[in-house]
Amino acid sequence: MRFAPPGSAPRGRDRKAVVVPAHPGRSRPVPGRRPACAVIGGGIAGIAAATILAERGVAVTLYEREPSLGGRLAGWPEVLCDGSHVTMSRGFHAFFRQYYNLRGLLRRVDPGLDRLTGLPDYPLRHGSGLHDSFARVPRTPPWSAVGFVARSPSFGWSDLARMSPRDALPLLDVSLPEVYRRYDGLSARAFFDSIRFPAAARHLAFEVFSRSFFADPEELSAAELVLMFHIYFLGSSEGLLFDVPDEPYPQALWDPLARYLRGHGVEILTGTAVDGLTAAPGGGHVVSTASGSRRVDAVVLAVDTDGLRSIVSGSPTLCDAAWRGRIGSLRTAPPFLVSRFWLDRPVGGHRQGFLGTSGYGPLDNVSVLDRWEGEAARWAAGSGGAVVELHAYAVGHGTDRERLGRELLTQLHRVYPETRAARVVDERHELRSDCPLFVVGGHEARPTVGTSDPTVTVAGDLVRTDHPVALMERAATTGFLAANAHLRRWGLRGQTLWTVPTAGRSAALRLMARAGGRHPATHGGQ
Predict the structure, then answer these.
(1) How many CB atoms lie within 10 A of CB 12?
(2) What is the pTM of this model?
(3) Are the CB atoms for 215 and 437 separated by under 8 Å?
(4) pLDDT in tens, 164-173
(5) Could you give phi then psi for residue 498, rounded to 5 degrees?
(6) For strand 36-40 and strand 497-499, is the pairing parallel, antiparallel, or unpaired?
(7) Integer CA distances (angstroms), 190 to 185, 223, 227, 361, 520, in order
(8) What is the full DSSP assignment across 81-131?
(9) 359 and 127 in contact (C-beta within 8 Å)?
């Protein structure tokens, strides 16, 4: 890896962004020796892998068990009770400016990223009345932290003085895999207790960051939270503002990418679940589905946790027994609910398109979709109403989704009182439980891109990597890495990647961090 020269990083503004050069090789296979690869999973990771493989001339078959591509960002048609045709999805996702590799994937079909529109703020509100904003916070560390403290009503200079410098300073020098050696044996909540993070700011920033993983802070590894702070706040100058697609996910993202893939010869099989893999005579694998089987030279497993466990349990000779055992022990995060309401009157014009919340019962955030999504805006304009989406993370198993949805609506009335007078024209509730859980001490058990079988790679946001990436960007990055591993074996050129800085941003801050000594979690082990 090397630092990008000033002005040379086209995917972001951070002059310290790190480029991971592509390995060299041919741009196309030798005639008559075209390899075949099965990419199992049509979410971000699978689409990224299929894209670079197809661009290099590999024969790719993309399997997706659901009717459409997109994974957790998939969308599907619905008809409302007023006869309107709309697109439902599993909820809002923020496309941060640090997502260099995801953005590189989207540029295949949208070179200027014109389908992404920036929201002006990332506001946070607590039920007590505290409110934080990142709109006017400087983007470059350490001024981002200084600006946040200077402006935040929930985190003041006195709070900073009460924190434990010795334990907090290592946040200024995050590197991989060291961050996991230091913090994976500690829960996110215990970590904040140890550095004496102020309670008010914890309820805002801490809750928002930790619950981005759909997990209770008691179960979430502190290493993931510390890495998040590095990626989004202390290690990158891209800031905490983000973009969102200007239309529903299928129209803005996946339909164009599906056309792009088919144009490169990819066979896309949606609604097709893979039952298992068996060794093929002479090498490679046989991919089995309900409709038949086919032989391939290599496989990319780009599915969610449950899907990976299912495929591995149906593939008793895949890789080795120890690897299969680790896959079988993976856990999913608690369920989350996405409730979308079509209201008969607008939300106040001064309201933000997105708001992170804490202290409002189960409500974690509010999205006013008609502020940015074209389909929602057209419905709102025609009806005089609004389209509002509410999220609740880490809810209990067996939750009644309609009942919880009504509670979220009640909390919306607290957050935006003008919605109390609104009538619900229609509503949809999606209760899902398929996100990976990054448990305390679980880092070593998570799969890596590579396996004991070089013809099998793994991709997705559950995969561990030594690159500082998370959430959607981890999915895209590991998708490219999983494809790169096969391309290298076949003598084909790989995909160049970018990441946020891989360590603290300045020598002075790194020295301060190291002078603070080792965090007690270093001795806790995994």
Answers:
(1) 19
(2) 0.92
(3) yes
(4) 656 666 677 7
(5) -130, 150
(6) unpaired
(7) 10, 11, 16, 22, 11
(8) TTS-EEEEES----EETT-HHHHHHHTTT-TT-TTEEE-S---EEETTS-E
(9) yes
Question: For residue 369, what pLDDT is reported?
Answer: 98
Q: Which residues contact 144 (CB under 8 A, 6 or more apart)?
A: 137, 138, 233, 234, 237, 239
3-state helix, strand, coil in the chain (%, to 5): 35, 20, 45
Structure token pair of residue 9? 């990083």
d(CA 524, CA 526): 7
Tokens encoding 156: 């003041």
Q: Which of 312, 241, 237 is nearest to 274 (CA)?
A: 312
From first CA to last CA, the distance across the chain in angstroms is 28
Least confident interval from 4-8, 11-15, 174-178, 228-232:
4-8
User: 10-14, 178-182, 228-232, 246-250 — which is least confidently predicted?
Assistant: 10-14
Task: Tell me what pLDDT residue 166 has.
Answer: 62
Name the token pair of 323: 């690897």
CB-count burial class (<10 Å; 0-12, 13-18, 19+) for 524: middle
Round to whole Å and give the CA distance between 8 and 100.
13
Separation of alpha carbons 199 and 155, rounded Å: 9
Average pLDDT, the chain: 88
Element at 439 (helix H, strand E): none
pLDDT of 150 higher than 70:
no
Which amino acid would we find at residue 329?
A: S
Inter-axis angle of helices 305-313 and 321-328, nearest 10: 140
Residue whose pair of structure tokens reads 């998040």 in the numeric block: 228
**Angstrom distance (rounded) from CA 451 to CA 53:** 19
Amino acid symbol at 320: D
Query: Does the pLDDT of residue 17 top 80, yes or no?
Result: yes
Residue 280 has pLDDT above 70, yes or no: yes
**The pair of three-digit structure tokens given for residue 115, joined into one six-digit string:** 């389908």
Q: What percent of the chain is predicted at pLDDT more than 70? A: 84
Point out which residues pair with 298 in neighbouring strands: 37
Q: Is 453 exposed, middle or buried (0-12, 13-18, 19+ CB in 10 A)?
A: middle
The letter for the amino acid at 339 is S
**d(C-alpha 210, C-alpha 470), whole Å:** 12
Residue 481 CA to residue 488 CA, distance in Å, equals: 10
Q: Which of 102, 427, 443 is closest to 249 using CA atoms?
A: 102
DSSP codes, 130-178: -EE--TTS-SSTTHHHHHHHHH-SSS-HHHHHHS-HHHHGGGGG--TTH
DSSP string, 369-380: GGGT-HHHHHHH
Burial class (CB in 10 A: 0-12, 13-18, 19+), 288: middle
Point out the least confidently predicted range of 207-211, 296-300, 520-524. 520-524
